[in-house]
Hints:
Radius of gyration: 24 Å
CATH architecture of the domain at 36-307: 4-Layer Sandwich
Structural class: alpha/beta
CATH class of the domain at 36-307: Alpha Beta
CATH topology of the domain at 36-307: Purple Acid Phosphatase, chain A, domain 2
Number of helices: 12
Number of strands: 17
Distance between the termini: 19 Å
Helix content: 10-25%
Shape: globular
Amino acid sequence: MPGSRRAVTLPGMSTDTSPSKRSKPKTGTDTGLPTIDVAHFSDTHVAFSQYPVTSPTSGRNQREQDVLRAFAGVCTDIGEWDPPLVIHSGDVAEKPLITYRHQLQIQTAFRDLTRRPDGSPRMVVVIAGNHDAPKDSREPCYLEPALRPLPSVAVVTNAYRQVHLAEYVDAGAAHESLRDVVVHCLPHDILKGVDWDEVTPVPGKINILTSHGVVGNSELYRRCLGREYAVDTDVLLRGWDYVAMGHYHKPGPVAVGGLKDDTTPIWYAGSTENCGFSDLRDGVDGRGYLRVQVTAGQVPAVTKVNLPIRAMFRLPAIDADGMNFEQLGAALKARIAEADIVGAVVDQKVTNVSRDTWSLVDLAEVRRAAGTALWYQPTPVFAKTETGQDDGDGTERLGNIGQVLTETAAALISDDSERDAVLDLSRKLLGSALDDVPEQKAGKDADDGDSTDTEAVDVGGQSRGAAAAGTGETAGQPDGDLVTAGV
Length: 487
């Protein structure tokens, strides 16, 4: 139908495109400016792939199709909610060099987002994340040629830019309710050289800041000390009406500088799909996007929207201490029988197992027992042959790493309490990593798919020759390609 929104649809997904009723913009009591509905999503990682499992209908990597399905599902749900403004806070794709097919899928999805059911335009603002940025700074980001031609899309890839939506309203590319909105864009690569004094709200406007990176002085910042360029904390406290963050795959509020979870305007949208088992460690209860009501001078009202994705989980760990290979094989199959693994991506950690015992376990038989799963990977953590003494804070156990960590923290962090907190967390994380990483070299099938670039890699000990179990065509998890008009 002319003027209607073209939904991004997939086999097995709802194709109901009837729009929800839109209310007139509310007015902020303090400023007279309207309350704006904003959809915030991030870290879609189009072109991500993992595990040697192909779709039976397309022949393409099944996890690639899962990620595309999640991207399409979010776009469809946003279109049905029908806000006037959408923000994508970076890592649209998994890598800067993607196929023409993926570029078309991205372009089509965003073009459809700009079309509202009543025929009016919807404004979409997109910034580049670290996965989007070209390796050579002299090369353009793929987002430029893909999205720049779309009149209702503002794409910012390599500079700090204030996007005054009044310019798009005057050009007929945005709804009138956005006239007083300014979106301040800080893509990932500009964080290392931006003049923070310039990043300031515009008086008399609704000011939204969006960036892809680590929030300074947050828990995430401490986990990434020395590896990330942080968004300056003082800048984040300059009175923004909403801060749309990307990069961290866990959705939720960020409380820094005396702010609390219920008073902060700073939110991570999280990823739209799990990009590896390390995405599970923060206890996320779902993936999707944020519905945000932004009013000048007030705390934004944020609602998390979780949409169906493929199940991915770890089975309870098995302590193999004292087991022979037959007992361990039976324990692995018992864990499988106790869980609903149909169509799921499943990891099974086995601790305190000797190499000799593990080599005798009939893993082929175990995988046959897990035949309904999309992917099943047993991860052995081999028993240590030697133990060291610990001085209580983990420094001696970490050896030279601990000494370097202590010296680095002393050089970079002047505040004693903050330095102690960083050191304590770092030692715990490193100690946990030493416990988790098998002594054998991880093979190609190990879980290396953590796309956050902000967490310690959870190296899976996938055995050599491990193969996928199941076809991936399961109830509730339909298979198929991203189907969009024109692609």
